[in-house]
Amino acid sequence: MSFFDNILWNKIFKKDSLVDSSSSYTKEESQTKKFIIGKDETLYNGVAFFHELIKDNLDNLVIVCIGTDKWIFDSLAPFVGSILESRGFDFPIYGTIESPIHAINLEDSLTKIKNNHPDGFFIAIDACYGHEESQFEIHLRDYPVHPGAGTNKHLPDVGNVSIVGIIAVSDDDIKLHEIRLRDVICVANKIVDILMNSVESYKSIYLHKDDMLSFMNHSDRDCLK
Fold first, then answer.
1. Can you say how many angstroms the Cα of residue 106 is from the centroid of all Cα atoms in its chain?
2. pLDDT for res 171
3. Strands 32-37 and 61-65, sheet pairing
4. Order of strands, sheet of 14-16, starting from the edge strand that comes earlier in the sequence
5. Sign of the Cα pseudo-torsion (81, 160, 204, 186, in order)
6. CB neighbours of 86 closer than 8 A, spacing ≥ 6?
7. Contacts of 97 (CB under 8 A, 6+ apart)
């Protein structure tokens, strides 16, 4: 059993029931896999978990980031897309600050993306609502996102697997305007770190194992203070 298999064997998989209680998203299947990274937790075990979700599809990965920079609380995924591009992530990326994918253009965008990548394995990135105690958590999941579920919009599911950041804890206008762009960008950088290490470190391109362990435990991303 490998080093990373040992991590997973030690019960880092967390089972969902019918409802993801910390977000607006629901799941019809009775058993799913999810790993939660709290805002003060290191990313290392999350990287191992997410690698297990994508390791059989590394040649077909496509990143789909959903959101808009018109609202700070919904700009998480576009920032992830733009940061991935700036860091030279070597996979197709859709949805950035410059070219966002949102409720208005989602269906057309998905049609084009699937036509471009008929064999794609899609990783969906999105922000979502949650409870106050779960704000700024990152949820790694083996099922799609359901865009607009928190606002009763009926939009198509996105992704074979997904990463969601819990940014908003209320749809109250005052509370939404209290969300800081700094915090959104911090969560976006953490998601980028997870994605890049889930792919590259296991191929010994981005970081070697010992370097990654040090990287995942450093405090540079501990910015949610």
1. 17
2. 63
3. unpaired
4. 14-16, 32-37, 138-141, 161-168, 121-129, 61-65, 93-94
5. positive
6. none
7. 69, 75, 78, 79, 81, 82
